[in-house]
Structure formats: C-alpha cells, structure tokens
UniProtKB/TrEMBL annotation, chain A:
<feature type="transmembrane region" description="Helical">
    <location>
        <begin position="402"/>
        <end position="422"/>
    </location>
</feature>
<feature type="transmembrane region" description="Helical">
    <location>
        <begin position="451"/>
        <end position="472"/>
    </location>
</feature>
<feature type="transmembrane region" description="Helical">
    <location>
        <begin position="161"/>
        <end position="181"/>
    </location>
</feature>
<feature type="transmembrane region" description="Helical">
    <location>
        <begin position="6"/>
        <end position="22"/>
    </location>
</feature>
<feature type="domain" description="NADH-Ubiquinone oxidoreductase (complex I) chain 5 N-terminal">
    <location>
        <begin position="67"/>
        <end position="109"/>
    </location>
</feature>
<feature type="transmembrane region" description="Helical">
    <location>
        <begin position="131"/>
        <end position="149"/>
    </location>
</feature>
<keyword id="KW-1003">Cell membrane</keyword>
<feature type="transmembrane region" description="Helical">
    <location>
        <begin position="201"/>
        <end position="227"/>
    </location>
</feature>
<keyword id="KW-0472">Membrane</keyword>
TrEMBL record, chain B:
<feature type="domain" description="Na+/H+ antiporter MnhB subunit-related protein">
    <location>
        <begin position="5"/>
        <end position="128"/>
    </location>
</feature>
<dbReference type="GO" id="GO:0005886">
    <property type="term" value="C:plasma membrane"/>
</dbReference>
<protein>
    <submittedName>
        <fullName>Multisubunit sodium/proton antiporter, MrpB subunit</fullName>
    </submittedName>
</protein>
<comment type="similarity">
    <text>Belongs to the CPA3 antiporters (TC 2.A.63) subunit B family.</text>
</comment>
<keyword id="KW-0472">Membrane</keyword>
<keyword id="KW-1003">Cell membrane</keyword>
<feature type="transmembrane region" description="Helical">
    <location>
        <begin position="35"/>
        <end position="56"/>
    </location>
</feature>
<keyword id="KW-1133">Transmembrane helix</keyword>
<feature type="transmembrane region" description="Helical">
    <location>
        <begin position="68"/>
        <end position="86"/>
    </location>
</feature>
C-alpha cells in the first residue's frame, strides 16, 4: 500500500521509457491518453487512502526520516495530485488534434510525461532538496516543450523563460544552503520540528527571503512575473494550456507548504509581505490583461492576476482563508486550462489569436460559445460556477480577519476579470466578423476529441460549483492539517 | 580530419576504452567510478570512431538511435526498484545476494548495481545524443 506514494512519480517514468522504446506517433497518442488516464485513477486512489489515514509517508530506500528522502502525501498533496492528473488527462486528448504536424507526438509525450513527473514529484516530496530536483525536471521539460515547434519566437520565449527561471533556481539553491547550514536538515517535517522550538528562528529570515523570491518567480507574482507573458503565447496552444494550468500553481503549492509548515516565525512580517505581493499581483495582472487584444496574452496576464488570490489566502492565514486559497487553486487550474483550450478552438476556427480580426462565432457555433462561457463565467465568479465560491470564501475570510484593503482589491480585481472575459466574449463571439483574410476561413465542425477535454473541464467547474459544500469540506480539512501540522510531522518522523 | 593513424587506432582503441569504462562501472560501488563516470567514458569511446572517420551519418550499429541506450538504461533503473517491492521493503531499498563462484569467495550482486548499470546506459545515450546534435548540419 505504502508504495503507492511513489507511483505518481514512477508512472510517468514508465511511460517515458515506453515512448523511448516504441517510437510510433500513433502509439504515442494512445500511450499518452492511457498513461494520463491511469494517473487519474492512481491519484484518486491515493486521495481515498489519504482520507482514511490522514497522512501517508514513504521512506525511500528504507532510510529513516531525517536522513533519507521521504515522500509524503497529505490532504493538500492529494488534492493537487488529483486536479493535476485531470488537467494532464484532458491535455493529452487535446494534443491529439491540436498539435501541428511539425511536432511529433512521440517527442511531445516524452516531455509531457517529464513535466508530469516533475510536477507530481514536487507535490509528494517531503524533502527540500528533492523539491529542487523536481523543479529542475519540470523546468527542463517545459523548456523543451516551449521550443518544440522550432520557430524563432519560441526560441526567444523559451530562452527568456529558461533564464529567468534559472535565476529562481539559483536563489532556491542558495536558500537551501542557508537552511541546511543553520538547521542541519532538509527534511520538511524535521525542519518544522526544529524551527518550532527555536527562539532564534528569526535567523531563518535570510533563507526565507531567498525562497520567497524563488517561489515568487515560479508562481509569477508581482514583480517577478516577466517570464510568463514573454513565453506563454509562443508555443502551440496545447503546450500553453498545459503550462497555464500547472506550472505557476506548483509555485503556489510550495508557497503554501513552506509558509505553513516551517517558516511560521515572524508571522506579522511575512503575512504582511504576502498580502502586499498578492494585492499588487492581482492589480498588475488584471490591468495588463485588460489592455491586450490577443487571446493568449490576455489569458496569460490573467493567470498572474489570479495567482494573487491564492497568495492572498495564504497571507490572511486563517483556516478559512487557506481553505479558500486551496479551493481557488483547484478552481483556477481547471477553469484557466479550459479557457486556453477554448482559445485554441477559436484560433483553429479562424486561424488567428487576434481578437480584432475575429468575430461572429456565436452565430456560427453556439456550442463553442457555451464552451467558452463556462470557464469564463467561472473565472469571473458568476454563481453557481466554481469561481463564485472560491472568491466568496476568500472574501469572507478577509472580512472576518479584518483585512479590508486586500479584500477590496480582490473585489475590484474581480471587475477587471469580468471586463477581460467580456472583452473576449464581445470580440470573438458577438461582433460581426470583420472583412479580412480570416473571414473566408470555412468553419469546420468540431470533432469529439477536440471539444471533449473542454467539456470535461467545464463539467468539473460546474460540478465544483453545485457541490461546493463537499469540496469545501475537503479543502477545510486540508487547511486544518496545514495550520496544525503535528500529524504530518509525527507521521514522517516516527512513522 | 582524415588521418590513417587515427582511424586505425580508433578501431582497436574503442574496445579498449569501452572495457576500461566497464571496469570503472564495476568498481564504482565503494571506490571512485560508477555508472555516471563509466557511462561518460563509454559514450566518448563510441563517439571516438565517428570522429576519426569524420562521419556520424555512418549507419553503424553502435551509433544508431542513441535513444535506445536511454530507454534501456531507464528500464534497468526501473527494474532495480522491483525487488524491494516484492521483499516488502520501502521502494529503492538495496537488496543484495551472493552468487557462489568457484575459486572466489562469491560475488555480491544487488539492486544498487543494477541501478548503476542503468545510469551507465542512460549516460551513454545522452552523450551520443549531445555529440550528434552538435555535429549534424541542418
């Protein structure tokens, strides 16, 4: 049973091997869909196991906790694994129809599984240095994915992405060094135990700042987000949507993990800093999204704006707020990926991502309009879809805890979100198609494999809204476990 | 570069270098050496002949499809995990057996060694891939 903890990492690894051995592209597509489908089942099983046991830990190689590498799955990890698997699965199907002929499916899926492996590794690891390794696995795979199409812009975007993220990795490593120098351990649970009873924990601030900036770069918070809009619009839309749903959220996950588990000293300063960062991130991303007229750019800036909400939940730091942050992260991963998927369909129908050049899609395909409406309304926070409850929890937590400024900023950013979404809606769907070279593109009916991923994610968004109370219970459990990590520490160190 | 001496040397030196790499792999568990270093050596030994003949396009058995090496290596790494699962130990626990060999006190074989062989082949594949990508003209 306990070996299941390692399987989210091993499963993509197995599929990488089979893709290296069997090089047929037709087979690669099947392997990709099959592998990511298995991943959903596996993550679901882990989720059930965690509901039963609370926290599960696996000591790799039989080396006891502070010495070896521990893999840990708690409520938060389990939730993230399930949501990530769902997104990975829908992208695998989407890739079959939307990858251009220039990108071989075999190559795509090798790095796709590489990214998944790094992602799952980051979610389950209980060791700070191991986390760094998984970040690098993810970084390398995503760099290759960006540049797979071999165009000039992709190389430019890829290099910007790579270099800024490598700076993040460097700072991360520096932080790891300082942490190890002071405490002599990198096991997260052990760190938590040491720092909890240490009245010199304030000395960890140097290390914490380095981690803050490193994760800030990964999560694309203000003012460290420049790599994201520089790179997300260059690769094929399949790859953009994969990144949109997953990459920045790992940064958010590590933020939540580090600042609830062991960087819990000097809370006033850190929470203040998190809240200020969150506010600026929301506004800066929202403003930039409002200013752009290219779908992928709007959506990329919009990712940044939404990261602010998750950081806000962490900054308020009540159980309700953290539950809200987790709820928001789940909702956002699903809805954000979905908007990118629909953007890809719009671009396929018309041949461009420029909103000024397209129009009249509502008349041509009401179905596509509905597909867009669901995630767009979810992001804008229209009840009864997921986003409303996510924002509601966060705002309620903010008001209860007396964080009025950030709550006001969050509500105003909601307006900006609504504006960006309505802009895409008006331009692409409602207004008449302008007379230009794209007007004559014949509209092809969407095939099943093309719209299915979006239907799947859209249905999840709606179900999340309808059964928000159940989901809220799960996130609340996760938040309580994060606020009081004694079970986590005990399971890892004594388990 | 088209030197007869180098070409002749490459033919024989390659196997000498590869056997040296295997030696480095074998002694690696407790001494300097191991899968990574051995893999680098073996990879360069394979590349060596290509350099001497100034031709990487040659359809030579050892040079074709470096991904094969990576696939094999990663597969061996995966195999090395399996015994620990069946032994009921945590994943990646080292399992050792002693193979009785006449005239010796027995050879100790274990999953860490299998892991090392996996690393060896993976590194060969990566080295070949690097060299090919850098020398090919597009």
């Amino acid at each position: 049973m306990i070996t299941f903890v390692a399987l989210p990492i091993l499963l993509p690894f197995i599929f990488i091997i089979s893709l290296l051995v069997f090089r047929s592209d037709r087979l690669a597509g099947w392997l990709g869909v099959f592998g990511s489908g298995l991943l959903i089942l596996l993550s679901g099983y882990l989720f059930i196991l965690v509901q039963k046991h609370g926290v599960i830990a696996l000591q790799m190689g039989g080396w006891e906790a502070p010495f070896g590498i521990t893999l840990v799955v708690d409520f938060l990890s389990a939730i993230m694994l399930v949501v990530a698997a769902l997104i990975v699965f829908s992208i695998a199907i989407y890739a079959l129809r939307f990858l251009p002929k220039t990108i071989r499916l075999n190559r795509f899926f090798i790095f796709f599984f590489g990214l998944t492996m790094g992602l799952n590794g980051a979610f389950v690891t209980g060791d700070v240095f191991n986390l760094f390794v998984w970040f690098e696995v993810m970084l390398m795979s995503s760099f290759v994915l960006i540049t797979l199409g071999r165009t000039k812009e992709q190389l430019e975007g890829g290099i910007k992405y790579m270099s800024l993220n490598l700076i993040g990795s460097l700072l991360f490593l520096a932080g790891v060094g300082l942490l190890y120098g002071k405490t002599g351990t990198l096991n997260m649970a052990h760190l938590a135990e040491i720092l909890k009873n240490d009245n010199q924990a304030i000395l960890m601030n140097t290390s914490a700042v380095l981690f803050f900036v490193a994760f800030g770069i990964k999560a694309a918070v203000f003012p460290l987000y420049f790599w994201l809009p520089a790179s997300y619009h260059t690769p094929n839309i399949t790859i953009s949507s994969l990144f949109a749903g997953l990459l920045t959220k790992v940064g958010v996950y590590t933020f939540i993990r580090f600042f609830t588990l062991f960087f819990v000293h000097d809370q006033q300063f850190w929470h203040q800093l998190l809240l200020i960062t969150a506010g600026f991130t929301m506004v800066a991303g929202g403003m930039a999204a409002a200013a752009h007229y290219e779908t992928r750019r709007i959506l990329s800036y919009h990712i940044i704006s939404q990261i602010g909400y998750m950081i806000m939940g962490l900054g308020i730091f009540t159980p309700l707020a953290i539950a809200g942050a987790i709820f928001f992260t789940i909702h956002n991963m699903i809805a954000k990926t979905n908007t990118f998927l629909v953007a890809g369909m719009i671009a396929k129908a018309r041949g461009t991502f420029e909103l000024k050049e397209v129009g009249g899609l509502f008349k041509q395909s009401p179905f596509l309009a509905i597909l867009f409406m669901v995630p767009a309304f979810a992001l804008a926070g229209v009840p009864p879809i997921s986003g409303f409850f996510a924002k509601f929890i966060l705002i309620k937590a903010g008001l209860e805890n007396g964080n009025y400024v950030i709550t006001a900023v969050a509500i105003l950013t909601g307006m900006l979100t609504l504006y960006s979404m309505i802009k895409i809606w008006n331009e692409a769907f409602l207004k008449a198609q302008p007379a230009n070279e794209y007007a004559s593109t014949p509209f092809k009916k969407l095939k099943f494999a093309e719209y299915f991923p979006s239907v799947l994610l859209g249905a999840t968004s709606i179900l999340m809204g309808l059964f928000a109370a159940y989901l809220f219970d799960f996130t609340m459990n996760a938040a309580n476990q994060l606020i009081d990590p004694s079970l986590y520490i005990e399971t890892v160190l004594k388990g | 570069m088209n030197s007869v001496i180098l070409q002749l040397a490459a033919k024989y030196l390659r196997w000498l270098l590869i056997s040296f790499a295997v030696l480095a792999l074998l002694r690696g568990h407790n001494n300097p050496g191991g899968g990574f270093i051995g893999g680098l050596m073996a990879g360069l030994a394979i590349v060596y002949k290509g350099f001497a003949f100034n031709a990487f396009q040659v359809k030579e058995k050892l040079l074709k499809r470096p991904e094969r090496y990576m696939g094999l290596g990663l597969f061996l790494i995966l195999l090395s995990f399996i015994p620990s699962v069946f032994a009921g130990k945590p994943l990646m626990t080292g399992i050792w057996i002693t193979v009785p060999v006449p005239f010796f006190s027995g050879i100790k074989l274990g999953t860490p060694f299998l892991f090392d062989i996996g690393v060896f082949f993976t590194v060969i594949g990566v080295t070949l891939l690097f060299v090919f990508s850098l020398t090919q003209k597009k």
